[in-house]
Write a structure and sequence with these properties.
mainly alpha, 18 helices, 6 strands, about 10% strand, binds s-citryldethia Coenzyme A
Length: about 425
């Protein structure tokens, strides 16, 4: 971060105040208002923090106008084509692409930690069968802080590393166990002879009574989807992980909070909503124009799920990659679904419509991902869990960057109070 020597000037009540301008490596600029309230008595208001940075970060850069997304400087298109999810996880968490030795060690460490403590597994039988898997995921991740009490200290690098490995290793097991428990099938334990994505798909779909083989194409497309979801700078769930971590809470507690934030239908829960929306449109005869119209109607709460983005005011580069992968995966797996055709017609109709054009609403990462998850036989209520599996290294990298910075302060935004002014207590009998 460069101190530009530039300043901006605020004029308040006839007095001028200068604030330093800081500039990032991609020439983004901000003025630092760290002493605004002390100097002027004023604070700022920025609903949803659309104009407010809370930190500097060297992890992910995105340019919403140009549709650019880079992890530690590497374009998402190159990582999607050439990398593996564990390699991308290493890149995000530790800052550089690993050497052969580093990747081998990282992979081996993760493989060795994929099992859950048997006492932790007992938790699953306490949930109702129809529990949403995101609730189970958040609960079990939070419970990890009770089973792994030897790695909770955020200031001890060795304990942090242990927790990073445990989370990367166990989240697929936690997710697959949630699914198997919900359908009443035996939970399939991880296998150390399978690579990360194949191991997860095996835990999801194998049964003890017969052999099961994960098709390489399926492992390959899951690897792609996890890479595309791995990080996205200060999105809602990542900012939540940073906020929780800023109180020096342990990594398990911080990640559990990220899972809860991701669950929301406006965020990671959108991929489930997209599929339910496409199914609704299909069941209603496939009339996409009717639903584009509904999405524009201010009297309707209906939104085109999978469309729009706080930052991307151009095509989400991840959506473009997933859309291409959709055709390939459905052809390879010989899966026919009317929902892909509906999605494409819906996209065409929306992108021609002035309402969407004026508001720069384009398909986002969630618009096509569910079609691929369905082709992999992943149930709709597990779609956001898949997003969490991908986003885990991103959450970890931001939590670690904040803790390693040594300059992070506990997050504590201000407010403008709009409640009643001072008034005296009224005794119960005197209240009307
Ligand atoms: C993710 O932040 C990230 O990086 C998130 C994410 C990540 O990787 O972490 O990219 C993942 O969360 C993707 C977004 C998934 N959510 C959805 O697909 C839900 C549908 N989209 C919207 O709810 C909305 O677009 C948001 C929440 C994504 C963004 O909302 P903003 O930036 O706060 O925009 P807004 O709600 O203020 O909308 C601006 C205008 C409004 O109309 P007007 O008041 O100007 O008339 O656009 C309209 C909105 O009504 N609008 C939509 C719309 N999205 C916005 N209208 C119809 N359908 C939509 N999907």
């Amino acid at each position: 971060m460069a101190d530009t020597k530039k300043t901006v000037q605020l004029s308040i009540d006839g007095k001028n105040y200068d604030y330093p301008v800081i500039e990032g490596s991609e020439k983004e600029q901000a003025f630092d208002i760290g002493n605004l309230r002390a100097q002027t008595g004023y604070i700022t208001m920025d609903n949803g923090f659309a104009n407010t940075s809370t930190c500097t970060s060297a992890i992910t850069f995105l340019d919403g106008d140009k549709g650019i997304l880079r992890y530690r400087g590497y374009p998402i298109e190159q990582l999607a084509e050439k990398s593996s999810f564990l390699e991308v996880a290493y890149l995000l968490i530790y800052g550089n692409l690993p050497t052969v030795a580093e990747l081998t060690t990282f992979t081996k460490e993760i493989t060795k930690h994929t099992l859950l403590r048997e006492d932790l597994v007992k938790l699953y039988d306490g949930f109702p069968r129809d529990a949403h898997p995101m609730a189970v995921l958040a609960s079990v991740v939070s419970a990890m802080s009770t089973f792994y009490q030897d790695s909770l200290n955020p200031k001890d690098p060795a304990q942090v590393q242990e927790s990073i490995i445990r989370l990367m290793a166990k989240l697929p097991t936690i997710a697959a166990f949630a699914y198997k428990t919900s359908i009443g099938q035996p939970r399939i334990y991880p296998r150390n002879d399978l690579e990360y994505c194949s191991n997860f798909m095996n835990m999801m779909f194998a049964v003890p009574s017969e052999p099961f083989q994960v098709r390489p194409e399926i492992a390959e497309v899951m690897n792609l989807l996890l890479i595309l979801h791995a990080d996205h700078e200060q999105n809602c769930s990542t900012s939540t992980v940073r906020m929780i971590g800023s109180s020096a809470a342990n990594l398990f507690a911080s990640i559990a909070g990220g899972v809860c934030a991701l669950w929301g239908p406006l965020h990671g829960g959108a991929n489930q909503e997209v599929m339910e929306m496409l199914q609704t449109i299909h069941n209603d005869g496939g009339d996409v124009d009717k639903y584009v119209k509904l999405a524009k109607d201010k009297n309707s709460t209906f939104r085109l799920m999978g469309f729009g983005h706080r930052v991307y005011k151009n095509f989400d580069p991840r959506a473009a990659i997933i859309k291409k992968a959709c055709d390939k995966v459905l052809t390879t797996l010989n899966v026919k679904t009317p929902l892909l055709d509906i999605a494409k017609r819906l996209e065409d109709a929306a992108l021609k419509d002035p309402y969407f054009i004026e508001r720069k609403l384009y398909p986002n990462v969630d618009f096509y991902s569910g079609i691929i998850y369905s082709a992999l036989n992943i149930p709709v209520n597990m779609f956001t869990v898949m997003f969490a599996l991908g986003r885990l290294p991103g959450w970890i990298s931001h939590w670690k960057e904040m803790n390693d910075s040594g300059t992070a302060k506990i997050g504590r935004p201000r407010q403008i109070y709009t409640g009643p002014t001072a008034r005296d207590y009224t005794p119960l009998q005197a209240r009307k």
